[in-house]
């Protein structure tokens, strides 16, 4: 069939059957969506690097308590950052690798990468970027994001923070 890459061997058989029977080439769509064949190849390399790494294997999250899940993701996040630094990954590589390691589940670095970093990229002055951006990108600091809507009842009473 058309789905002959290494990852296809792990694909759900029903999904593979549907892709093989499509009236279009799924690989062409994949290349289009991800920026071309070179980007797709690199994406697959990074995903394989993460998915085949024995350091990131753990028991099924469905059989863990909430505390165990959190501890597992903290451990995986710290290890992931160490490995990304060792590999000297760029921004795009880090994003693909992070998604492969941590998946779509909420994780301890989720707000850092989805809200804190974009806020620095889009709203920080050049002076603020010079001070904070490299540290945030390299996870030397880990940030979060919080906001309230004045008069709209957002419950923020329990939030504790320190402004620096």
What report would you give on this structure?
This protein has 164 residues and is an all-alpha fold. The longest helix is centred in the middle third of the chain and has 22 residues. The N terminus is likely disordered.
The first-to-last residue Cα distance is 57 Å
Percent in helix: 55-70%
Residue share in β-strands: under 5%
Secondary-structure-derived class: mainly alpha
**What kind of sheet is the major sheet?**
none
Net shape = globular
The number of helical runs is 7
Mean pLDDT: 83
Strand count: 0
Radius of gyration computed on alpha carbons: 19 Å
List SSEs in N-to-C order.
HHHHHHH
Low-confidence stretches: 1-6
What's this, in brief?
By secondary structure, this protein is mainly alpha-helical. It is built from seven helices and no strands.
Topology:
Layout: H1 13-20, H2 26-33, H3 37-51, H4 66-87, H5 91-102, H6 110-123, H7 126-137
Notable characteristics:
single chain, 164 residues, mainly alpha, 7 helices, 55% helix, globular, disordered N terminus
């Amino acid at each position: 069939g058309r789905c002959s890459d290494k990852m296809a061997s792990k694909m759900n058989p029903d999904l593979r059957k549907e892709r093989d029977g499509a009236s279009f080439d799924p690989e062409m769509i994949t290349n289009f969506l991800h920026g071309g064949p070179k980007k797709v190849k690199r994406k697959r390399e990074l995903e394989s690097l993460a998915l085949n790494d024995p350091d990131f294997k753990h028991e099924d999250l469905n059989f863990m308590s909430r505390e165990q899940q959190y501890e597992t993701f903290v451990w995986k996040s710290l290890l992931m950052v160490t490995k990304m630094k060792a590999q000297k990954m760029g921004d795009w590589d880090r994003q693909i690798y992070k998604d492969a390691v941590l998946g779509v589940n909420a994780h301890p670095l989720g707000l850092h990468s989805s809200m804190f970093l974009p806020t620095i990229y889009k709203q920080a002055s050049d002076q603020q970027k010079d001070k904070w951006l490299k540290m945030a990108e390299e996870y030397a600091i880990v940030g979060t994001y919080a906001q309230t809507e004045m008069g709209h009842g957002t419950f923020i009473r329990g939030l504790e923070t320190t402004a620096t």
